[in-house]
Design a protein that fits this description.
The chain is mainly alpha-helical and 517 residues long. The chain is built from 20 helices and six strands. Strands 3, 4, 5 and 6 form a four-stranded antiparallel β-sheet that branches.
């Protein structure tokens, strides 16, 4: 192996080792995000015999949740803490994605410096750094999509079949992968007609079999993954905004957050894509360029209710790849300028050194600080749990209330993470709070007829009236606004706190039955 190649391998290993050491040192019981808590809870319930979709609502396709259930079973069999078993998996998955980005970038550019820089940039992209800490579906989806793209870039028919397989796995991990998979199929049909069948036929065949199998086994796959997701788009009768107005407002708001944290890297990536389009001779340059651009359009997904800035993680691999490409291209021009300045200095035989080349290097350093500085501050804040829904100290307080007023095996009403961390069942497995709330109000205000959402609320309200729940931890912005539940609590429960307990995004109130006074 050449010495220069060894240097890049060393850089990769050092980057991976730093990440593998820093992250476990900051593991805690902190509440990262609602999605993380919800998937942990559902996975735990599945590991205890609950049937996905039929017994518990889940907005995601099965791979993510079945994998989570397997991790829970593994932790139980090995006698390991379930939370940290899942956290270890998330760490290994992120490192595997880090390596895969290196391999994909090397496949595109055939330059180890670009590939190495791509992988290292990916490790410090702020939103992805934060989102990969929890058990979210996007990191697994991203891993499968990267594999699908890598094999699609190869020319063999076998590689196209493998690309179709990983595309299918991505779709059955998170439905946000569907547009990217459909684009790849469209590109194959239009640009690679002679071999497109090796991608398109396996893709649609595997997807059809997967949907048929999931619907047959659960009886509720389509209603959970398709119809409930569509139902989270706002109805005009429920707000003063049209769907278009709501979408534009969300895109502007959430997109602003992404630009604040990693706008500099995104600008470099856009410039890198321009240079790539102009200079690259890759035979599939058109596909790579369009796929990169569409991946950045993932921010549009925030127009769906409950989806926030984290969804841009789908575009971050190509932000890392294209920004690394631009930095490599730009540094090459600086090196040429330095060499040219040195030659000019020798030819002119000046007494004083021409400092313009030095100024270029300084400006390059300033550029890197500006581009990565804000993102690194965000990463520090994440490691300090300031971006978490609730840091570990706050979670410990909630665990204290749960353990004081309930016993193992009790059923409570609570946001999903707190139920998971204390191994308590949520009444009616009411863990997907946002979608259940939207369903309820849609049935009450828009459709004006009771459906699954109203029925679920009535069952919970009935349990509250009968004082069957020893403790309620109520999300005052969602469940706490539902009239039936609010009235039942006012009549039969009393609050434990004078003021709601405030997390990053949610005020919580704690209630116990009045008969406990």
């Amino acid at each position: 192996m050449e010495r220069t190649n060894k240097i890049y391998i060393v850089l990769l290993v050092v980057g991976a080792l730093v990440y593998a050491v820093v992250i476990p040192l900051h593991w805690s019981e902190g509440y990262i995000d609602f999605g993380d808590g919800n998937y942990l809870y559902i996975s735990w319930r599945m590991a205890n015999g609950v049937v996905l979709y039929r017994d518990v609502m889940a907005p995601q396709p099965p791979i993510h949740l079945c994998l989570g259930s397997a991790l829970m079973r593994l932790a139980k069999a090995a006698g390991l803490p379930s939370l940290y078993t899942v956290r270890a998996f998330s760490l290994l998955l992120h490192l595997a994605t880090f390596l895969l980005i290196y391999i994909l970038s090397l496949r595109i550019f055939q330059r180890r410096p670009i590939a190495t820089l791509s992988a290292l940039v990916y490790l410090i992209i702020p939103v992805g750094f934060w989102w990969s800490l929890g058990y979210q579906s996007e990191p697994t989806e991203i891993f499968f999509l990267l594999l699908a793209v890598y094999f699609f870039l190869n020319e063999s028919r076998g590689s196209l079949i493998l690309s179709a397989l990983f595309s299918t796995l991505a779709v059955f991990t998170n439905m946000t992968a569907a547009p990217y998979v459909l684009f790849t199929a469209f590109y194959a049909i239009v640009r690679r007609r002679k071999v497109c069948y090796y991608y398109v036929v396996p893709l649609f065949g595997l997807c059809f079999i997967g949907v048929l199998l999931a619907e047959t086994l659960t009886g509720a796959y389509l209603s959970n993954v398709i119809f409930n997701q569509v139902g989270t788009f706002p109805k005009k009768a429920m707000s003063e905004e049209t769907v278009i107005q709501y979408a534009l407002r969300k895109i502007a708001s959430e997109g602003k957050d992404v630009l604040v944290w990693e706008g500099g890297i995104i600008v470099l990536a856009v410039l890198g894509l321009f240079v790539f389009i102009r200079c690259s001779e890759h035979p599939l340059k058109e596909y790579i360029a369009w796929f990169s651009f569409f991946s950045w359009c993932s921010i549009i997904y925030v127009s769906k209710g409950g989806t926030m800035d984290y969804i841009f993680t789908l575009g971050e691999p190509y932000v890392a790849i294209m920004s690394a490409y631009f930095l490599y291209w730009f540094s090459g021009h600086i090196a040429s300028s330095v060499k040219e300045a040195s030659s000019t200095e020798t030819e002119r035989k000046r007494t004083f050194f021409d400092t313009t080349a030095l100024l270029r290097l300084i400006l390059y350093g300033v550029l890197c600080v500006v581009v990565f500085g804000i993102g690194l501050r965000f990463i520090v804040a994440t490691l300090q749990e300031r971006t978490f829904e609730l840091p570990e100290d706050g979670v410990k307080k909630i665990k204290y209330y749960i353990r004081r007023y309930t016993q193992p095996g009790d059923t409570i009403l609570s946001p999903s993470f707190y139920a998971f961390i204390t191994q308590r069942k949520i009444i009616e497995d009411y863990s997907e709070i946002f979608i259940w709330t939207i369903k309820y109000w849609n049935e009450r205000i828009v459709e004006r007829r009771p459906g699954e959402g109203v029925q679920k609320v009535e069952k919970i309200a009935d349990a509250i009236k009968k004082r069957r729940l020893p403790l309620l931890i109520l999300d005052m912005r969602q469940t706490g606004k539902i009239p039936e539940i609010r009235r039942a609590i006012q009549e039969h429960y009393r609050p434990l706190l004078e003021e709601p307990f405030q997390t990053l995004n949610t005020p919580l109130q704690f209630y116990i039955p009045r008969e406990s006074e």
